[in-house]
Amino acid sequence: MNLSIERTLAAVAFRQFTGNRKALWVVLLAWLPVGMALLARAFSAGTPDERMKDTLEFYQSLIIPVLLPLAALVIGTSVFGGEIEDGTVTYVLGKPIARWRIVLTRVLAAGVATAAVILPPTIATGLVMLGRLDHTNVVWGFTCAIAAGGVLYCALFVALSLRTRRALVAGLLYVIMWEGTLGGLFAGTRALSIRQYTLAMADAIATVRGSFFTAPLPGQTALIMGAIVVIAIAVYSVRSLQRFEIGEAA
To answer: Transmembrane residues, as ranges (predicted)?
Structure first.
């Protein structure tokens, strides 16, 4: 199968992200937990249990609920955003390329870029805090889950960028209101929360004691719901992209 079209589409998507000034701030912010972990280790040796709890706190309270969706939001909304704003998306749509190939390539490109931004500090934070004490696959489990969660977030935010010019605002509302506020008040909303899917996947891979960390959703439920949600978002994105036919977006 000739993937030259996908490589070209991915290269354009990466240029959209790297040309975004917000990208630099996202990259710098992603290393915040590493700096905090270094300070924590410098001022307190801590027992193995305390270090495990602190590591989980970094993952559960900072990286997954804040840094991961923020990175995915900036990257996901940028892979189409510039082309839609200046109308150059019509050049892509003018070529005989299936819409689903365009959407899939852009989502995967955004997912790879998000992983490149967020995974190194995720691993570094775990290594600084736990070193050789990670006998329960905590760092590995959260790294895999965050990578998968990044793709899900990117799929959602790419879809938002195809539907509204205020995708950043819409994405922030989803993260803050739906996953943050409503997710803490109503258990039913967790079944439609990428944050909860990410935590559940981490819990399924890591073997840490339940007294330290237990995700609200079972891992199997998260996988099924995650697959359903990403397929629904992909279909929605393809249909949204079809609105940008030549002449309509100009």
So the answer is: 23-43, 63-82, 103-127, 139-160, 167-187, 217-238
Domain encompassing residue 233: 3-248
Distance of alpha carbon 216 from alpha carbon 50, whole angstroms: 22
pLDDT digits (tens, 9 = 90+) for 98-156: 888 888 988 999 999 999 999 999 999 999 998 877 788 899 999 999 999 999 999 99
Give the tens place of pLDDT for each residue, 53-74. 999 999 999 999 999 999 999 9
- From first CA to last CA, the distance across the chain in angstroms is 33
Positive or negative CA dihedral for 59, 65, 67, 69?
A: positive
| Token pair belonging to 225 | 């719901």
| Block residue for tokens 């840094």 | 67
Q: Give CA separation, 51 vs 47, 48, 139, 161, in Å.
A: 6, 5, 13, 40
> How many domains does the structure of the chain reveal?
1
